[in-house]
Amino acid sequence: MNYKSILSGALVATTLLSAGISAVPAQAKELGSYPKIEVPTDKSKAPKKYAMIAKFTKQSKLEFLSAKSKLKEHTSVSGKKELAFIGLDKSDCGKDIARYMNVGMWEGKAVDVIYHLDSVTKAGFKGGEWIRFNSGSIGLTQGGYKEVKVTQRYVYHDTQKDAPITGSYMTFNDIDAHQALGFSDATMKKVAKIYIAESAKKWIDVTEKNGMTYFGSPSEEDIDPNDPKGKMTMLFDGNSITYSFVKDWSGYNMNKELNWKNSEYDQYYGYRGEKPVRTETLAPTKLVSDKNEKDKKENTLDTASEEYTYTISHSVPAEEKQFFYKSYEMDDTLIPELEIVKDSLKVTNSDGKDVTSLFENQTKGNQVKVVAKKDTLAKPEFYGKDYKFNFKVKVKAGTDLSKLKDKDGKITIPNTATVTKDGDKQSTNKTQTHLTPIKESIKKYIIDDGKAVDTDTITKEDPVVAYRIDNVVPNDVLLKSLMLSDTLDKSLEVADQSKIKVIASDAKANEVKVSENKEENATKAEDKKEETTDSSKDTSKEANKPATFANEAGKEEADKKDTVNYDELIKQVQPIVDKYKNAKPDTKEHVVLSNAKLVSDVLVAKKAGQTAKDKEALESINKALAEKDEKLALTGDMKKDVETLKSVLEKAIASTPAKPDTSKPDASKPSDKPADSSSDQEAGNKEESKGETEKEETDKPTADNVTKEEIAEDVNKEMTGDATPKGEDVTKKGKLEVKDGKVTWTANNPSEFAGKKLSLIIPVKLKAGMKVSDLPQKDGEVQIPNTAKLVVNGKDVASNTVYVGVDKETKEVPKEAPKPEDPKPEEPQQIEGDPKPKFLPQTGTDMMKTVGVGAIGVALGGVIGFLFGRKKK
To answer: Region (Disordered): which ranges (predicted)?
Structure first.
């Protein structure tokens, strides 16, 4: 067999057998009498089912899978340095031995062909037998083997899983000079048809014996590789084929070792892609890709504005010149809700080459049309290639997608394309692009030193508060109008109008977590410090009793914890009672004293054994706390609960307002009260307090007298950090108005922002000359509320409410001496065996009177108010 003539005959894969006919058993019959033979006519077409053929392209690569230790470099007959297996034997069989990567396409995805070495039979030389898988084409060359049996199968390149190939074809040519092909009975069952020329009926014969079918030439004559009588095109079902290459070495000098380094006695096996029959238009494949999904039949977009790519893949089989196409085009009609991205259309072939110039782009509007040029179809280089038509699309801005919703409310965008060859049209599979509807929503934050909070305080050091309003624009309605709106409280004004911004981003971008404000963090740090200090005390010698709780859930939790040392906890609270024991009624000191006594009484009651009244007390405390801030609700862990109450009691005096002391006698009237030691003591206390002062809050905010420079500096500081949204500044894509304390931004082109998040940033400050008493207050503390609006097509959606506090200035005032407490009768002692006392130890106070819900609400009012109004440092 003439190796060079085969190589020059546009061979692109393996399988032409060169073998002596004497190796084929006798009793051969003419090929024309074989039942699967067909001589094609002008109307004949090879079914599109048999579309696959392995082709070596510029994207292809050879990889060895086993027997690598037997690979050695040698020189091919063409002078090329290649790797060959030397001395393969039975021990190397039954394994995948080589893989050609990127040799074709199936359903739009790249495929590889894997060669499995089933068996080898040596001819009988003294050594040096060799087999080479060619590196520049899909082909097998060998020397010294009587038989080489292989199975080839197709797998997807990316997963290496079997590709569901429906069928493939191969054209074996140059069958002459005692050459033959051998196929097993199992493989012959997969052969659907064999196309031959009329002249091949008597040139090639068929022999069936021992489970094999052989196709060969009984003539010794050499013919031209392109001679039709020496060709045979076979159509195979499925994705794998098993066949044998045999060689009759009769007449060769067997008493020698082959010179494998120079490819001695080389025998090449290959096949061609052309066939003597037209091929039906092969079915094209359509896939879709987006920014995080690649080559899918279904994909899901993150936002309505996200661009995505359609890819229509089509295989153009190798054809003989008489079957070249007269016309070839790809069409894709997009639904009205889509539009093609300008200048995005591109065509590539299986060599990875941009071949857009071979086609005419006749796209108009939503009708994507690509037509092959006449001179393109006349060139053989067009055939035997895979083509990919790629273009980007996106949802038209502001389009109404409601009619594309399915029963679950999900938006689905369908698409199919077609490829037409000589009037024969074939459609792709259907792709589906999903989009989850985005509903309008609005969320408001305050940016505080780069972090998002929902409460903040205006101080002299931080005179500016930056509002951030995240407005999510819907993507499933036709947007006719879009406005962002925020009306400020009359006590506030915009700090710097030039700093008002509207930032556009994806709906799911720029998510922030609301941070606790600085005062809460500071309090938690201090509490943690105290907890650490308290835990260092050695209380192992103290008498402890298990804690009991007001509900079963708390009891179960208590069983898991360490026992509580009530004596130690009482000692921690007692200093507060002692500190304010002389507090006058109706003063802020007396409020603290009442709270401290309440905690002490509860602890004493719990030490003695919980009573029903004790339960009521704890429930009342918990209710009062929960109404103010659920974070302060008692947990059921008595030690932690006492720590919580203890820490806030010590700070309550700083914010609890004092009522006027009405107990002082009128100086204009003579006193009928005799002088006694108590009055002397009071006088002494007053004497001792001379010169001492305390701070008293005024009605003036600390931020009332800040300079423009300080305002500007704080604006820049607040509007930086993680809580400042990232994205496109679209402020100028709308009309911004600030009038009478109302900030509005109206989009010029609302549809542009469908499915987007628009973050409106507004820096505000306190108006000059404001009095604290004139500001909105809650529980005795300044709380300036603010709520924003998102207006879509005239419909308002309100945000959550955020609050701004105001720090007050303080001044030094003389400190008044405390009034001594009237002596109290000694408490009666509980008699052993008597019921539990109605009056609690230490205070002698009736439990129901002390801890009633009304009393607790009053007592804790100042405490909770303090928590909401602590000053910003």
So the answer is: 509-566, 652-739, 805-845
Do residues 413 and 446 share a domain? no
Whether 159 and 175 map to the same domain: the answer is no
Nearest to 243 by CA among 283, 212, 208, 285: 212
Contact assessment for residue 398 and residue 304, using Cβ atoms and an 8 Å cutoff: no
Say yes or no to pLDDT of 534 above 80.
no
Choose among 386, 369, 390: nearest CA to 310.
390
The boundaries of the domain holding residue 817 are 519-534+541-660+691-696+813-869
Q: For residue 162, with 0-12 CB atoms within 10 Å meaning exposed, 13-18 middle and 19 or more buried, which class applies?
A: middle
pLDDT computed for residue 664 by the predictor: 44
- Among 791, 809, 827, the domain boundary falls at 809
Number of domains in the chain: 5
Report CA-CA distances (Å) from 52 to 20, 45, 71, 317, 613: 30, 15, 30, 9, 87
Q: What is the mean pLDDT of residues 18-25?
A: 39
User: Is 0.85 surpassed by the pTM of this model?
Assistant: no
Residue 374 falls inside a structural domain: yes
Q: How far apart are CA 683 and CA 672, in angstroms?
A: 18
Given 809, 839, 858, the domain boundary residue is 809
CA atoms within 13 A on the CB side of 368: 30
Say how far apart CA 694 and CA 705 lie, in whole Å: 23
- Residue 30: what pLDDT? 80
Q: State the amino acid at position 396 in one-letter form.
A: K
542 CB contacts (<8 Å, ≥6 apart)? 565, 567, 568
867: pLDDT strictly greater than 70:
no
Q: Are 247 and 18 in contact (CB under 8 A)?
A: yes
Q: 466-482: b or e for each residue (b if 16 or more CB lie within 10 Å)?
A: bbbbbbbbbbbbebeeb
Whether 863 has a pLDDT exceeding 90, the answer reads no
- Radius of gyration, alpha carbons of the chain: 46
pLDDT digits (tens, 9 = 90+) for 590-639: 666 776 676 666 666 666 655 445 555 555 555 554 544 444 445 555 56
Other beta carbons within 10 angstroms of residue 134's beta carbon come to 23
Q: Please report, to the nearest 10 degrees, the dihedral formed by the alpha carbons of residues 194, 200, 205, 210 taken in order.
A: -20
**Rounded CA gap, 656 and 862, in Å?**
5
Tens-place pLDDT, residues 704-755: 878 888 888 888 887 776 778 889 999 999 999 999 999 999 999 998 898 8
Chain centroid offset of residue 70 CA: 47
Q: What are the E-state strand segments in 709-772? A: 728-729, 734-739, 742-747, 756-766
Q: Give me the torsion for CA of 187, 188, 194, 200, rounded to 10°.
A: 110
Helix (H, G, I), strand (E, B) or coil at 334: coil
